[in-house]
């Protein structure tokens, strides 16, 4: 299990019907992102040290250094040339 600061840690309930907990990883104790983690829990706002068990998983978020540049609102990516749609294998003579 590897994490980065800002990832969401989700711990499934130990039994059917038990609520799951989630929190934000706010600090790492190892440079490689391995446990334990400091987690700020969404239900209490408290920060605790956690060694994740088998019911835990990490939701990785796209971090700003890896994100695509933002687009100006109302703009779309460039489209291909307009034209007639054809059937597979049909030569459109374009």
From TrEMBL:
Disordered: annotated span: 1-21, 68-94
Gene3D superfamilies: Domain of unknown function DUF1918 (2.30.30.440)
InterPro entries in the record: DUF1918
Residues annotated as domain DUF1918: 1-58
Domain of life assignment: Bacteria
Annotated Pfam families: DUF1918
Coiled-coil stretches noted in the UniProt entry, renumbered to this chain: none
Protein name: DUF1918 domain-containing protein
Provenance organism: Streptomyces tateyamensis
């Amino acid at each position: 299990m590897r994490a980065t600061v800002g990832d969401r840690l989700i711990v499934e309930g130990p039994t059917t019907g038990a609520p799951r907990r989630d929190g934000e990883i706010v600090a790492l104790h190892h440079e490689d992102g391995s446990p334990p983690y400091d987690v700020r829990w969404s239900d209490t706002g408290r920060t605790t040290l956690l060694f994740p068990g088998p019911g835990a998983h990490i939701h990785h978020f796209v971090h700003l250094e890896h994100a695509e540049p933002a687009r100006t609102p109302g703009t779309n990516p460039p489209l291909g040339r307009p034209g007639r749609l054809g059937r597979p294998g049909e030569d459109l003579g374009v």
